[in-house]
Every structure is written in structure tokens, then in C-alpha cells.
Amino acid sequence: MQYQAPVDDMMFLIKDVFDLENRLKGIADFSEFDAELYNAILEEAGKFATGILQPINRSGDEEGCQFDDGVVTTPKGFKEAYQAYVEGGWQSLTASAQYGGQGLPKSLHVLVEEMFYSANSSFCLYGSLTAGAYHLLQAHADDVIKDQYLAKLISGEWSGSMCLTEAHAGSDLGILKTKAEPQEDGTYKLSGSKIFITGGEHDMTDNIIHLVLARLPDAPAGPKGISLFLVPKFMVNDDGSLGERNGIRCGSIEHKMGIKASSTCVINMDDATGFIIGGPHQGLRCMFTMMNLERLSIGLQGVGLGEMSYQQAFDYANDRLQGRAEGVEGTAPIIRHGDVQRMLKTMQAYTQAGRALAVWLGAWLDEAFHSEDEAVVSKAQNMAALLTPVAKAFFTDIGYEVCTIGQQVFGGHGYVREWGMEQHVRDARIAQIYEGTNGIQALDLIGRKIVSNKGAFLSELLTDMRDDMQSFSDTSHKVILASQLEELESLSIKIVEHFSADQDKQQYIACDYLHYMALSLYAYLWLKMAETGKDGKKESMQFFFNRLLPRAYGLKKSIENELGL
Amino acid sequence: MQYQAPVDDMMFLIKDVFDLENRLKGIADFSEFDAELYNAILEEAGKFATGILQPINRSGDEEGCQFDDGVVTTPKGFKEAYQAYVEGGWQSLTASAQYGGQGLPKSLHVLVEEMFYSANSSFCLYGSLTAGAYHLLQAHADDVIKDQYLAKLISGEWSGSMCLTEAHAGSDLGILKTKAEPQEDGTYKLSGSKIFITGGEHDMTDNIIHLVLARLPDAPAGPKGISLFLVPKFMVNDDGSLGERNGIRCGSIEHKMGIKASSTCVINMDDATGFIIGGPHQGLRCMFTMMNLERLSIGLQGVGLGEMSYQQAFDYANDRLQGRAEGVEGTAPIIRHGDVQRMLKTMQAYTQAGRALAVWLGAWLDEAFHSEDEAVVSKAQNMAALLTPVAKAFFTDIGYEVCTIGQQVFGGHGYVREWGMEQHVRDARIAQIYEGTNGIQALDLIGRKIVSNKGAFLSELLTDMRDDMQSFSDTSHKVILASQLEELESLSIKIVEHFSADQDKQQYIACDYLHYMALSLYAYLWLKMAETGKDGKKESMQFFFNRLLPRAYGLKKSIENELGL
């Protein structure tokens, strides 16, 4: 089944729901862009997803990456697709014009990312890591490094990798052991071993630029003693040509449940030459610059795979004949059965709300990075900080659930490999784990984004939402939403007031709290979408309010029970 | 990590919670059994699971079944393990003594099944289908067939397969097309093609006895025109020796998400000789005899894999050092983190309650099949009918969730194949689909087990539970449970009163209703377990009431919204 890029629904968000053109108009960097351009880009992205990426998705899964003596070969067609990706300018969409990027807004890019993840999640990861690398360098590297590396990363001629995890240090990066010895020429020699390095080695680019966390000899223990280094696979000469092979090598690749066409590498460094980025012991701080972007990107993997699974399940449910239904002669398509309807509506209601949240968050990222108004930047930074862990964790938890439902719609045909539905589940599963497990996201939300600012970020967000809701005309749902938001606020205040110092209690409720907040936000987004009067949105909104929002009641009760409220 | 058979928790259920020895004492067939025997069998089963089945679980997944020109080869070690399984008497545990079975109670057997599914789900399926076949033949075949086939199926010398699904007929068996032509000698010639036939071909037994649904030439359309046939792979001579190869052959095997060591076959019949079982057009009725047993068995796959995943996650969480915790010098084991605790407790609370429900249901099956008291039989049949879809669907939905959580505890190490955590997820996933999808289970529950008897079965069950609860001493939890059961009852009555004729509404809420009921039953079982005073049970009960039972509130609200209540 061919992927159908949901350009209409995306343009509906851009124009009718968020009116991005007007919202971003005041920002100089975006002043020349309009909705027509956004539409054209989405159309092209859809074609690229359907024509280039989707055709090698299942074969990529079947074939996987191959490892032989340090060399990683990507599955058939990946090199060519990557070439087309670079030539189409897809890597440079949001990158700074100064280094050859197109400077387009993140609120548009999230939609392109969603499409590409729908069509081929493994493929997307290579470019996503590259984007993380150049955003990081742009923010923290000195001009020499920028001049040498940025243009080639932005174009996609070279790719990037993020080398954080070690065998004994995953969620807890503070205990990592990779060493960086300063050299007389100002460079460093790195030694150590990293695992789970996505795109750490492959055959699609001439060079790979690794961003590596390591410790200097004098580093204090824990997270404050971590520094960041750029370690190229091949050294780069002053004229930009490639020099000698650096001492950073792929030792093996992992055999995984899914995303099999994405290479997941053990990366060994043996006196590899590196360049410090952002100064000594500033590694984690620098890393966090790009972490928000990467986390949102991984969230979109959840939305994208959910959309893909939904499209296939919807088609299958229309084609597959089983059982009787009123008004149908003979055997009915299974979409006529209530339980199948429930499954499809659940998939759709979650996926479309996720897409909306992604654009909403994307717009705040655009303001945070590009607005010249300090007040706008500051608020947007807060909103992006608050919403990023919600997006990453909820999109991916729900993405996995949605893909599982899509597989269920296919019955036994969903369990065999042939139809590809089980691949979506396997591919979606990783998104709950990498780029910070969803448990870590939940702790980030409750600890850093709620408790540490005493709920100020949430309060800012709620003020915005309530202002917006004033114009809503659907009184009955508005009342439900208003009370939902009040309960969210009041529960959050109680957490801040009584459990700010109780890390244990925070941990115990973190995941439930994140889901509770996300469902509340989805309710707002659904009502906002329904208010436009667009066909079908009111029904989906009602379905969400009736059938999915109630999950929030259970979560609230669970949190209250844990906290003794 | 080696599987640890949870014999203690199992004996706790047998003795302290359900007092099976006394409950079954009055049944002649079980009069010679006692708890000591049950304990000895569980100990042996545990050794078999750990020593024989678990060691070939991951290799079986890696290697899978191989197909070559009609011949299916099981993975290395499976033939030998099957031989040990037969020699150990594991196939004949609950079968009738008349044909060489050991006649042990189902309430014990469910625990053995759980262990075997924990250790190697693929392996278990072969024997589970054989058991389904001999229970069916025992109930519906004539003496000639019984004498010829039962002893060899019960011993496991031959295996069984259930041939129901066709490419266009899955949940809707009424439209199946396989034809059976009556012959002058009283046999039939079958032609047609079946798919998704578990154990339909393999190399572990000399003969495979297929039970095939097909249509006679004069059959009425729909489910009432289906007949059941015994179709052996090799014809059986009068002296019991094997005769000529029958025209039933494996055309290919499926490539699946999981249970890769279980052969899932396309079975083609070309004038295959078959023997009718149970008379013309009685096929579905006969099939349903064994369906309850098969469904419970598949439910146990969910419980078993959940237990396995829990054991590994628990061990890993004790070993894996990440982050700080109060009172721990240096890096703490992740089990000290609240979010990990929540995950482990969720896994445990669900799995142990599932095990309890399995024994509870097993005891009713024992009474239904073996009691000589008609009133006992009738009530037990009702309870088994009511609880079977709940067990099948909830055990497996939760089994998948629990395995997913277990994988999450491992972080990235859970996503790579090495540790085996992702195999549990893939193996568990099928259990929600086969033996009647969980959607079908939910429709069975609400349609046939609630609405069609106007809630009488549920009312009988609730009366039992309330009687039992009178002796409970934990007043505060008893109040919560009592109100939960009242709400379940009142919602069920409303469904019966207002939606008996509304199939569509029933479908829309069926899955939510099943989960809602299951959570209510788990609450009862947890309080019942806690009442024994056994170590740790009270804490788990509290966790269940605080953190998991609240899901039921959300489900209730969702159902009420859908029904406009």
C-alpha cells in the first residue's frame, strides 16, 4: 500500500489552526515565506517519501545493515536514496542560510520529518543525527570549526553522529569513562568505547563527524566533568579535502528488534584526534542545545509511524470482508464493525492531535531561535522546554500503541511480515527508548519543567490556551476542557507545593503525570481543530473527548492515590 | 538469565488462596490427588521449563522453522525437547485416564502451561494444539475414532492441528470454502486451502492429526453449514500402524514477527481423506468444545511471557547501576529509582493476578468437566464461559504490555536481540490475535456471556465473590472493592437493559468493557491474596488498588460516554 502524504491535514494546521504565516511574519528570518511555499514543500516532501523512501522500507528491514571488519553496508537502495535526499535539499531545510541552509521554520519541518518517518524511519535517523550535529556546532563551535564542517553537514555531504552512551552509562551519562588527553597543538586524543551510536558508521557519506562526550584528565566526577569533542572519521585538511583516517572505528553493529536499516554501532576510539567544543566541562550543557530538537524529531517518528499504520489499517478495513453489517448485502468490510471503527478512530484521534502538537511546539521553537523580541524568545523557550518531553514521550508511547492497534486491525495478516504492519510496531518501539527513555522524559518534565520553576511554564501555557478558548463556540466541550485544565493546574500546584523535595514521589508519578498532561493538551488541540468547522474534525473531537480523554481521569486518580491526595 | 519457576507463588494459590485440595476433593476423578502431588508436579515442570525448554528459546527464535518442498524442519533441539516432553508425560497431564492420560485437574495444568510458555512459547504451541485436538475428539468422536487416535495424541506420539482459517475467512468462519465430498465408504474427500495453521507441519512426530472445518455439498450457507473432519497426515491402518500419505500437505510457512520456532502453515488439501466428527453441519458447535481450553491456554502465554519478562527485568534492575539514590554509596541499582519500581510493580501486580485468575477459572473448568453434581456443573460451565474471554483477552493484552515494560526497564539493552527482552514482546504479540482476536473475545463476552443471559452469569459470579468477601478483614480496601463491583454490576445491567439489541453499541464498548471487568476481578483477587497475610501480597494489593485499578475509572467513563449514560 502506497503512503499518501497527508498534505491537506498538514496545511489545515498551518493555515486554519495555527495561521503560521501570520504568526511567523514578524520574524525577520521568516519574513519571505508564505503558506504557498509551505504547501509546495510539503507536496514535494510527500513525493519524496512515497517515491524514494517508502519503496526501500521493507526491503531495508529484511536486509538490514551488514558489518564486515569495520565497514558498514546499508541495505540496497539506501545510498541512492541518500544521494537523492541530499540533492533534493532535504537535509538543509531548517539550517542557517549562512552555511547554505534554507532557513525554513521548524513548524514546517516537523511535518516533513513526520512524512519521512512514516515512509522509512531507519533512513530518517541518519539525517536526524546530522541535523543534531550541525545545530550543536552552530550554537557552540568556534568559527574555524564552523567554517570547516557546517556547510558539508548542512548539505548532507557529510553526516553526523552523537556519541554519548557507554556500556555502563546510558541514562546516567555522569559516569561515562571515555578519556580526552589534551595535546600540545590544542587538539585532544580520545580513547574509549561508545555503544548504541546511530549512524556511527555507514557507506552513504565520505565523512562522518562524531560528536563525542568524554572526560578531561582533570575533570570533576559526575555530569559536571563531561566535555564535548568533534571527532571526524577522516581528518579534514585546511582546504576542505579529506586527510588521513582518524582513530575512531566501528567495532560491530547491533542486531535489533527493528529499525534494522539504521546502523547502531559500537564506536571505539584509540587515540582519536578530537577538537573541543564549548570549552572544558561544558559537554552536557552543549549537548542539551540539540537535545530538544532531537527529542522532537524522535517524537515525530511516533507520529509518522502511527500515520502510516493508520493509512494501511484504514485501507485494509475497507477492503477486508468479514461478517455482516446492517445495510450491506453479503459479507461486509470490517470497517463497518464497531470495534474496528473504535480502533481506527483511536488511531486517527491520537495521530492528528500529535501532529497538531508538533506544529504548535515547532512554532515555539521558531520563536525561541529566531525572534528578535526578547520577551517572545524567553516565553517560547519556556514553552519549548515544557512541551518537548511531553511530545517525545507521548508521541512515541502513543505511536507504539497506534501501530499495535493498526496491526490488530489486520488480524493474523498483521502478524506475518508480508503486509509490513509488524515492522511499524518494531520500528516504533525504539522511539520510547532512545534519545532519553520516556521515563527520563517524564522526570525531566516533572522535575525541571514543572517543579523547578514552580509551575510557571505550565501557568504561562495555560494562560495562552485559556485566552485562545475564549473565542471557542462549542460551549459543552469547552466546559469539559476548562475543567480538565483546572484539574491539571491544581494537581500540578499540589505537586509543586508538597513534593518539590520528594524526588522519589516525583519519580513514582512522573510517567502518569506526563500522559495526564498530554491528554489534557490533546483535548485542547482537538477542540481548537473542531472550532475551524472543517469536515470530520468535530466527530474526531467528540470521539477523543468521549473515549480517550477519560484515560486522564484514571491517571489523575492514580497520581492522587500515590501522593495521598 | 535462567528462568525461576515461581512454584512458591503457585502453591500459595493452590493452598492458601483457593484451597484446591478441598475444593476438588468431592470430585471422584480427583479424589486421590493432594497438594503434595501438585507441588511435586510443579517442581518437575519447573525443572523441565528451565532445563529443556528455555535453553532452546532464543536459538529457536534466531533459527526459526525452515520450509523445503512440503517439509518443515523445526529449529535445532526442538525434536529432542519434544521427545523429552512426551517421555516426561507433559502432554497427557489432564487427559482422560481411559486413554492413558493422568487425569490431573486443569487448575493445576494452567500453572504448568504458564511455566512452559514462560520458557518457550513457540514450543508450547505444538502441544497445546494437540491437547485441543484430543479434547475435541474425546467429546465428539465415535469410539472407533477414539480408539484409533486418542491414545497416540494423548501420549504426544502424534500431534494435532486445528484447521479453521482460510485466506478470506478468519474471524468470520461462516464464509469458509473448503469442500468435503461424501464417499461411498462413509469417508469424505476434502479439497481446499487453510492458512495460519499452527503446527500444521513439522518434524517432531510421525503423524499429524488435522481437525478441519469444511462444507458438505448440501451445506446451508453461513456458520450453520460447517462440518468437522479428522484428516490424518498419514492414514492409520486398523492395527494402528501408519498407512499411505494422505492428500493434505503444507504449501509454505509464514514469516512472522515472533513465535518463529512455531510453524505457521498453509495447508492444502487435494482429495484428502477425512472422517466426519459430530455429524453433518455440527462443526462449529464441536469446535467450541475445545475453544475454551485453547483460549485459556493462549491467555497463559500472556501470563507466562509476562512472568519471564518480569524476572529478567527484576534481575537487571538489581544489577544495572545508573544514577544516585538515597542511602546508596556511588551509583545505585536502577531498582532504587521510583519510575523503575513503578514498572516492576506494575509487571508483578498484573502477572500474579493473572495467575490467580487462571487457577480460579481452572477450578471451574475442573468442576464443569468432572463434577457429578449437576448444579455444580451447570454453575461451573457458566463461570467458565464468562471468564474465558476475559482471561484470553486480558491476559494477552496485559502480557504484551508487561513484556513491553520489561523491555523498557532494560533501556537500549532491551531493544537489541542479545538479552531476549524484545523476543518476549514479539512472541507475546500474537496471543492478542490468534485463537479469536481480543476484539472477538470482547464481543463474545458482552454478547454471549452478558447480554444473552441478561447478566445472570455475572450475577452468579458476583454473589460468590461477595460471599467470599464477607470474611475479608481489610475494611478500607473492601469498601473500594465493593463499590467497584457494584459499579460493574450496575453498568452491566444498564447495558443489558438498554443495549441488548444494539450490536453496534456493544461492539463500540466491548473491549473497554472487558478490560473494565478484568480490572474489577483483579482487584478482588488481589484483596483475596492479601487477606492470607502472606509476605509482600499486601503491598502488591495496595499498589494494584492505588495505581492500576484507577484505569477502570477511565474505562467506565469511556463506556458511559459512548452509551450516553
From TrEMBL, chains A, B:
Cofactor(s) needed, names only, are:
FAD
Its EC top class is oxidoreductase
Q: Write out the entry's keywords from A to Z.
A: FAD, Flavoprotein, Oxidoreductase
- List residues of the Acyl-CoA dehydrogenase/oxidase C-terminal domain: 282-447
Which segments constitute the Acyl-CoA dehydrogenase/oxidase N-terminal domain?
A: 40-157
Which E.C. number(s) belong to this protein? 1.3.99.41
Give residue ranges for domain Acyl-CoA oxidase/dehydrogenase middle.
161-271
* Top-rank lineage group of the source organism: Bacteria
Q: Name one GO molecular function term.
A: flavin adenine dinucleotide binding
- Residue intervals of the Acetyl-CoA dehydrogenase-like C-terminal domain: 480-561
The reply to whether Transmembrane helix figures as a keyword in the UniProt entry is no
| Catalytic reactions of this protein | 3-(methylsulfanyl)propanoyl-CoA + oxidized [electron-transfer flavoprotein] + H(+) = 3-(methylsulfanyl)acryloyl-CoA + reduced [electron-transfer flavoprotein]
Give the InterPro entries listed for this entry. Acyl-CoA_dh-like_C_dom, Acyl-CoA_Oxase/DH_mid-dom, Acyl-CoA_Oxase/DH_mid-dom_sf, AcylCo_DH-like_C, AcylCo_DH/oxidase_C, AcylCoA_DH/ox_N, AcylCoA_DH/ox_N_sf, AcylCoA_DH/oxidase_NM_dom_sf
Q: Which Pfam families match?
A: Acyl-CoA_dh_1, Acyl-CoA_dh_C, Acyl-CoA_dh_M, Acyl-CoA_dh_N
Keyword Flavoprotein belongs to the record: yes
Which PANTHER family does this entry report, sorted A to Z?
ACYL-COA DEHYDROGENASE (PTHR42803), BROAD-SPECIFICITY LINEAR ACYL-COA DEHYDROGENASE FADE5 (PTHR42803:SF1)
Function according to Swiss-Prot or TrEMBL: Involved in the assimilation of dimethylsulphoniopropionate (DMSP), an important compound in the fixation of carbon in marine phytoplankton, by mediating the conversion of 3-(methylthio)propanoyl-CoA (MMPA-CoA) to 3-(methylthio)acryloyl-CoA (MTA-CoA).
UniProt record similarity statement: Belongs to the acyl-CoA dehydrogenase family.
Protein name as it appears in the record: 3-methylmercaptopropionyl-CoA dehydrogenase
- Give the organism the record lists: Kangiella koreensis (strain DSM 16069 / JCM 12317 / KCTC 12182 / SW-125)
- Lineage in the entry? Bacteria, Pseudomonadati, Pseudomonadota, Gammaproteobacteria, Kangiellales
